[in-house]
Amino acid sequence: MQSDGKSGYQLMGGADTIRRLVEAFYPKVQNHPKLSPLFPPDIMPVMEKQYLFLTQFFGGPSLYSDAYGHPMMRARHMEFPINRELADAWLGCMQEAMEEIGFSQELKEVILHRLKGSAYHFINTPE
């Protein structure tokens, strides 16, 4: 995902914006009745991993791989029963977080399009 030679990481505003996105996103996940049971009560380690992953996923420094090795995100999510409804809920929380921190409509669409591929790739349980 690049526009005018800029990575998604740059288009989003870099590290500070990704941190703000993660901080806006996880309270929404924790308050979602279907998503919250999938996450531990201490959400801080999950938030940190998400920050590292999104930084790398959108073209920033390889923080996640440097700390944890290859992301192997589908394999890391296999222990959780994920269906289309949960993937859509996760994406909905992300969209709300992007709106909260003020992403433009165009940037939200680009980011969501990229995240949909991953969210739907994690589906491992039929409806």
Automatic annotation (TrEMBL):
Sorted alphabetically, which Gene3D superfamilies does this protein's record hold? Globins
Which InterPro entries does the record associate with it?
Answer: GlbO/GLB3-like, Globin-like_sf, Globin/Proto, Hemoglobin_trunc
UniProt entry tagged with the keyword Nucleus: no
Which keywords does UniProt give here?
Heme, Iron, Metal-binding, Transport
Q: Which family does it belong to?
A: Belongs to the truncated hemoglobin family. Group II subfamily.
The protein, known as: Hemoglobin
From which lineage does this chain's organism come?
Bacteria, Bacillati, Bacillota, Bacilli, Bacillales
